[in-house]
Each structure stands twice: as C-alpha cells, then as structure tokens.
Amino acid sequence: MLELSILGFLAEEPLHGYELKERIKALSGHVRQVSDGALYPAINRLVAAGLLDQRTEDGVSAAPRRVLSLTGKGREELLARLRSPKQAEITDHVRFNTLLAFLRHLDDPAEQAAVLRRRLDFLQAPASFFYREGEPVRAEEAGDLFREGMLRVARVTGEAERAWLREALGALSRAAT
Description:
Blueprint (H helix, E strand, L loop, with lengths): L1 H11 L2 E2 H13 L6 H13 L3 E6 L7 E6 L1 H12 L3 H5 L1 H10 L6 H16 L6 E2 L2 E2 L8 H32 L1
Antiparallel strand pairs: 1-3, 2-3, 4-5
Helix pairs in contact: 1-4, 1-6, 7-8
C-alpha cells in the first residue's frame, strides 16, 4: 500500500520526499507508521522501475531537495493497481481506504464501481472477530463486555459503510449512463 500511496499522491502533483511522507502519514500513519527506512527504498524501487522521475531543486533555506513526479509509466501502473486491487486491498479496512483515496484517478465509472462492488460483496458475507463452533459470534452472544463493544462498533460501522457503498454505486451507475 506504500507504493500505491506514493503513486497516488504523485499523480496529483510533484512532491518532495518529506511532503510525500507527511501526506502518507496523514492518510494511514496513525494505523500503520511509515518510516524513512520503508519510504525511501520504495521510492528508489519505483524510480528504478521507471515509474517515478526525480530532480534536484534548491532548498529555500536548506540543502537541495529531491522532487518526485509520476512518469507516464507510473500513471499506467497506478491505474492498473486501482483497476485490479489484490484481495487484501479489498478486505483490509486500512488498505481499502488507501485504495479509495485514489480511486478517482480511474476515469471510468464502471471500473470504479467494480472495485466498490468487490468491497460490498466482502462486507455482506457473515463475519465476526470471534467464532463459536465455526459460526460467527454476534455482539449479543459475546458474553464479554469488551468483545460485545468491539462487535457492536463493527456492526454499526459496517452498516454505515455498506449504505455508503450502495449510494456510491447508484451515483456511479447514473454517471455511466
């Protein structure tokens, strides 16, 4: 998801490494921290693959800074990742939010809708954090104040997300016609 975030933010505008890190941190850093030890090797891999371009720019009151921008090949890679996300990018909430942050870069409402449908299908399958005899445990059956809280919050957020997904799919359907 780090590479998707890099490609997505650079699709919007060229950025210095520090600015890019701050935007990634704002998107998911509270859940999954981004370190320099992960960010800069990822940037270097994307530059080596021809997905990013870099140039040096004089710093205002500091040393020269590296400015990163997306290449045409990088834009194509971003669009390919958005069109065909991995299953973990659909099922993991933080990963899905990263995908959602850049889904607008797909121009085709049908392609956007296909990604949202995958998430909605996933959210409609019965699931729980806890199971008893192979069956999902509902909040009312948790028998534990804290697990009940987890399950109740998950239920409400799941309902809200499913409602939004249905609304978004309706809007995309109207936009496609």
